[in-house]
Every structure is written in C-alpha cells, then in structure tokens.
Amino acid sequence: MTALAQTKTRLGLLSLVVSVALVAIKFYAYHLTRSQVVLTDALESIINIFTSGFALYSLYLAALPKDENHPYGHGKIEYLSVGFEGALIFMAGAYILYSATGSLLHPHAVDRPGWGVALLATTAVANLGLGLYLVRQGKALKSVALAGDGQHLYIDALTSIVSSGALLLVAATGVVRIDGGAALLLGGFILVNGGRMVGRSVAGLMDETDTAVVTEVIAELQAHRRAPWIDVHNLRVQRYGANLHIDCHMQMPYYYSLEHVHTELHDIEELIRAKFAVEVEMFVHADPCTFAACSLCRMADCPVRAHPFERAVVWDLHNAVRNERHRL
C-alpha cells in the first residue's frame, strides 16, 4: 500500500472510531432527555458508523493496484461509497420526518434539557472539527470518499447545534412542540443532503465531466503549445478515485516519421502527468494533418504548405472537447 493510500486509510479509521464514540454520547443524551430532536440527531449519527465503515473499506479497495479484471484500477468504488452513504442518510431523513410528525402532533415533556445541551454541544465541536478536516484532506488527496464522509460529519455537527438550540428554547419557553418542530426541520434538511450525495455519486459513476480538471488540462496544453501540435480535439477526462484517465486527438504534420510523432506524443503525456499530483494515465491519438488545416498551422518551415497561416485557434473548454477538427 502506498503512503497516500495509508494516509487515506488512517483518516477513514479515525472517522469510524470518532463516529462510534459520538453516537454513544448522543444516545445517552436521549436517555437523559427523552427529546425527539435529540433522538433525531442520534439516529442521523448512527448512520455515520455504517458509512464510515463502508468508506474505510472503499479506501482499501481504491488503493488496490490494477489487475486483469480492473484495468483502470478500483477507484470508482469511492463514488459507490458516497452513494451508499447518501442513500442511508436519505432513508434516515425519511424516517425522522415520520417520527417527528408524530412527536409534533403528540408532544411530551423534555427531561433535563441542560444535560442534553451539554452533551450535544460536545459532539458538535468534535464532529465540526473532524468533518472540516476530512473535507480538506479529501480535496487535497482527491478522495471523494473522505470528502463525502467529512461532509456528513460536518452536517451532523450542524444538526447537533440546531438540536441544542431547540432544547434551550424548550427550557426557556416551556413550549414542548418546539422539540418536534425542530426535529421535523432537521429531518427535511437531512433528506435533502442525502439526495444530493446520491446525485454526486451517480454523476461520478456516469463519468460526468469534471469541468475544472478538463480546463486545467486544456490550459496546460495551450500554455506549452508547440507548432507541430496543430490541433487538439475530443479531449476527455475520467476520474477513477484520485487517479485520472485522459485521452485526446492531436493533429500533427502528416510527413512526420512514426518516431518523431511518438516523441511529440510522449512529451504531451509527460507534460500533463507533471501537472497533477495524482496518477495520470494519458493516451494521445495522432491524426495526420490535411491541407484544410494549413490556415491554422504555425509550422514555419512546412515543406507542403498549401495555404498561408492566418491565425491559431485558442484551445478552450468549448472547442477542445468536441469530436471534430477545428476550422477557421
């Protein structure tokens, strides 16, 4: 296992251990208070244990090397992890809405709200700190599983803060329906966020274009563009966990030898690999130029030029991804 994979695994294990400890605290807070909003918070948090465990397993699988059955690696499992987490959160939100509706219609007294506030505030601080840390590390390590797990903990901290506020209001006003109303609002919030996580998972599994990464690739090619790189098109980027698979078509002078073309393509691939801190697998398909490309070709000493150079096409997100050669 690489150092990067070990770091991800340690973070995933940390999330799992903290989730178990905080869920125990929240259920103890419910035992003391018998508050619906505290139960809502605890039920949402118990999902953390299952999702953190699955995220840890997905990080282990994502770190496995390529094999005959998985030629692009195992990184896609991280998107499945996010979808699994989102689905569980969505189901928890639906149940919480059902339970909170009953509590709102038939409210009951809240016991020892002070203890509930103290315990939930403790869990909120822990979840907020760890959640923000995991989101930051997930982005730095290009791990959607870690980032998704961190976002869930961050959301869990927000629910604990709202739950604490509801208990304080109940204690201050004596209106017990505030407890059920707050639980109802939290249930809706949890439901929406679970749905969003499922949407991100589906987008990743369906290879939805990562606009930011594609823009970076195009900008790097444009910044280091050489005259023989006449035109680039059909540029695509697929993400497999942290790793990237990039392919494109590059139009080059048709009279170049195979060795010369190979050297140019190798330079392009190395240029892009050096740009990203993750593993990049890049394939460039070479297309021979045609006389129709002369007007946008900057080859100064071209021996077969049929038309004078007019202007170069600036590669950007709108033209480099199209599956067609550029024309003036």
UniProtKB/TrEMBL annotation:
Q: Quick check: keyword Hydrolase in the entry? A: no
GO MF, any single term: zinc efflux antiporter activity
Record's bilayer topology term: Multi-pass membrane protein
The subcellular localization recorded is: Membrane
Source domain of life is Bacteria
Q: Which residues cross the membrane?
A: 12-33, 45-65, 77-97, 117-135, 155-176
Q: Which Gene3D superfamilies match?
A: Cation efflux protein transmembrane domain, Cation efflux protein, cytoplasmic domain
Q: Please provide the record's keywords in A-Z order.
A: Membrane, Transmembrane, Transmembrane helix, Transport
What name is this protein filed under?
Cation diffusion facilitator family transporter
